[in-house]
Amino acid sequence: QVQLVESGGGLVQAGGSLRLSCAASGRTFSSYGMGWFRQAPGKEREFVAAISWNGGSTYYADSVKGRFTISRDNAKNTVYLQMNSLKPEDTAVYYCAAARMTSRLSREYDYWGQGTQVTVSS
Length: 122
What we know:
Blueprint: E1 4-7, E2 10-13, E3 18-24, E4 33-39, E5 46-51, E6 58-60, E7 68-73, E8 78-83, E9 92-99, E10 109-112, E11 116-121
Parallel strand pairs: 2-11
Antiparallel strand pairs: 1-3, 3-8, 4-5, 4-9, 5-6, 7-8, 9-10, 9-11
């Protein structure tokens, strides 16, 4: 079992930055691929970024490539999402998730956090 708790969301102006954190419980965190997804009102949940168990591979949605950076610290059981140059269309609830593989597909993820709201004002 892995429990995930996101933090770091909030209200920011367009062009600003936020850093999301996802703290994981359990001693097997380092064996999981981790992902960030987001869901805006009235829209389906979409992939944002993923990172392999050792941080050696990262993947991004085209919409965030060059602006967002995913990273992890296995010693702290934490994964991060650094978000720069934020746009109003980045407004959503952001979720972190854990999977036995590194994937862009939400169905591959076994464990999910409760989400943290990110609001970008224009």
